[in-house]
Amino acid sequence: MTHRRRRWPWILGLLLFGLCAVVALGWESDRTVEALKPHWAQAPSEFIDLQGMRVHLRDQGPRSDSVPLVLLHGTSASLHTWEPWVAALEAQRRVVSVDLPGFGLTGPDPQRDYRIERYVDFVHALMEERQIQRAVLVGNSLGGWIAWEFALAHPEQTDRLVLVDPAGYGTMPQEIPIGFRLARHEWTRPLLEHLLPRSLVRGSVEQVYGDPSLVSEDLVDRYFELSLREGNRGALFDRFSQGLGSPANRERTAQISCPTLILWGEQDRLIPPADGHKFAEDIPSSQLVVLPGLGHVPHEEAPTASLAAVTAFLQSAVESTTQSSPP
């Protein structure tokens, strides 16, 4: 018994040493917007004052486009996730992408309000500031949820919807990225607001890709550095505490009246493809395209393949307008 008692201080000491090593290796201080700007806010980035925030956005393509695309990213992402799509679209279409409150260089909402209703109000204010009367709303995951909620709140301003693996039905994920799992528990907040091992970020991004081998070091750098923007780690905890959707929303999406394209990665383990079929069943004027081999962010993982369906969808709108115009 005495021998065992003597061992306990050594065991506790080793555990404490291990914990200190983990903290030392993973400790990351917040980074200021000014420090991040040179790499992540190059032209054509802009910053505007909106709802008490200094909002980071990009407004690209011809201003003569009367129905621009407004692109809304998912949780822990940024406007950079859309850049391959924007590069392909901007010659013909005006495209507005934005860092949503709580993420990217925009950073936290001063009111700490991350309810979907607040995000819808934010998008509405953004469109007013950009003088956009009517738009095609494009959203992935959380951004997809915001997009379809916007269509319900402002149908007169929603021309079409493109929903890319959208959230909102509250379905239990098959796999939750480890970073998201930790951010769902308030007891981890004091630690994770200061710790962010790069390996944790890499693992979380790999989990939302159909093919994890496509996750590059540059991609991990982007997610890692923008997560360190001052206030973003705390905002993630606030966001997860303010609603993750509900199956009851299926009755609400049935009221969406605009044409809707639903894209879904076949290998999405965060929001399974079964939800894509539910959205297609619920939204009257919708079509579902399942993308083989892709995960939760198909626009980022395979930009060309995922954009093909969007281009066809947008072209059908042009053709429909042309056919309905008087000779």
Write the layout of secondary structure elements.
Layout: H1 2-26, H2 33-40, E1 45-50, E2 53-60, E3 69-72, H3 83-89, E4 95-98, H4 116-129, E5 135-140, H5 142-153, E6 158-164, H6 178-183, H7 189-192, H8 198-207, H9 217-227, H10 232-240, H11 250-253, E7 260-265, H12 273-282, E8 286-291, H13 298-301, H14 303-324
Parallel strand pairs: 3-4, 3-5, 5-6, 6-7, 7-8
Antiparallel strand pairs: 1-2, 2-4
Helix pairs in contact: 4-5, 8-9
Summarize the structure in words.
By secondary structure, the protein is α/β, with parallel strands linked by helices. The protein has a single domain (33-322), classed as Rossmann fold (3-Layer(aba) Sandwich). It is 45% helix and 14% strand. The protein has 14 helices and eight strands. It has helices at 2-26, 33-40, 83-89, 116-129, 142-153, 178-183, 189-192, 198-207, 217-227, 232-240, 250-253, 273-282, 298-301, 303-324; strands spanning 45-50, 53-60, 69-72, 95-98, 135-140, 158-164, 260-265, 286-291. It has an eight-stranded mixed β-sheet with strand order 1-2-4-3-5-6-7-8, sandwiched between helices. Helix 4 (116-129) packs across helix 5 (142-153) and helix 8 crosses helix 9 (217-227). The longest helix has 25 residues, at 2-26. The termini are far apart. Mean pLDDT is 88; it is low at 8-25 and 321-325.
**What Rg do the Cα atoms give?**
21 Å
Say how many strands there are. 8
Beta-strand residue percentage = 5-15%
Major sheet details? 8 strands, mixed
Give me the CATH fold name.
Answer: Rossmann fold
CATH architecture descriptor text = 3-Layer(aba) Sandwich
- Structural category is alpha/beta
Strand order of the largest sheet: 1-2-4-3-5-6-7-8
Q: Spell out the CATH superfamily.
A: Alpha/Beta hydrolase fold, catalytic domain
Broad shape: globular
* Low-confidence region ranges: 8-25, 321-325
Give the termini distance in whole angstroms. Answer: 98 Å
Helix content: 40-55%
Rounded mean pLDDT score: 88
